[in-house]
Amino acid sequence: MPMPNNYRTIEKPYYTAILSMTKNGLRVGYILDVGCGKNPYVFHKLFSNYIGIDIDNNILKEVSQSLPNASLICASGTHAPFKDNSFTLIICTEVLEHLKNPEEMISEISRISTLEGKGVISIPSLSLPQIIILWFAYKTQRISRKPYQSPDHVREYARFKVAPQFEETSNLFKLFRRHGLEIVDVKTAQQLYTKPKIIYNIFLSKIENVFETFFSKYLIGHYTIFKVEKI
């Protein structure tokens, strides 16, 4: 997840979409940010009852230097150290793609959510232009290795299974419902990291490393954001 304390103009569509979904959390109850990493700045300022958890204690210590009053706990979202029905809002931005078994975290989110509690969950995914480009690249064997997103991602998501490395986003819908979380809203947001020139170059070049460079370093960030409610 990009650094919210910078909050550059190109990031605003993403944060506007997430914050619009979390606004109900301002009212009452406790707010949990699962896998907060270095990014609790925006949410900590908005929610007086904010708690952030992450498995990297070194990162939390670093963040604590600039946010000494933030409630930050070293813990895993797949084994959250909280009682059932503890949180009215759970935020989980760009974590599921790092997990071998995302269902474990989805189950925990359901367990620690209050009845009718909300969850705002985002994942990086492919936009339609990216799906077309990747499908063409894969079918013409222009790529052979993992072409998209961060090398520390365990899985990647797209609306369609355009390549073996990808999982359909609809599979997450099934996991949410399996654990009593009803999807009440879905948004997408883009962030432009690449220079427009790269889009022109990609259609001129037909060598493998251009596709890999485009998808791994000069990607057009596309995010799918789910709002779920415990039923």
Task: Please explain how this structure is put together.
With 231 residues, the protein is of the alpha/beta class. It has a single domain, classed as Vaccinia Virus protein VP39 (Rossmann fold, 3-Layer(aba) Sandwich), CATH 3.40.50. Helix content is 33%, strand content 27%. The strands form two sheets. Strands 3-2-1-4-5-9-8 form a seven-stranded mixed beta sheet, sandwiched between helices. The chain has a two-stranded parallel sheet with strand order 6-7. The protein is globular. Mean pLDDT is 78; it is low at 1-10, 192-208 and 215-220.
What are the main properties of this structure?
231 residues, alpha/beta, Rossmann fold, two-stranded parallel ribbon, 8 helices, 9 strands, 33% helix, 27% strand
Helix-strand blueprint:
Blueprint: H1 12-22, E1 30-34, H2 41-46, E2 50-54, H3 57-66, E3 71-74, E4 87-93, H4 102-112, E5 113-124, H5 128-139, E6 156-158, E7 166-168, H6 170-178, E8 181-192, H7 196-204, H8 208-216, E9 220-230
Parallel strand pairs: 1-2, 1-4, 2-3, 4-5, 6-7
Antiparallel strand pairs: 5-9, 8-9
Sum this structure up briefly:
With 231 residues, this protein is an alpha/beta fold. It contains eight helices and nine strands.
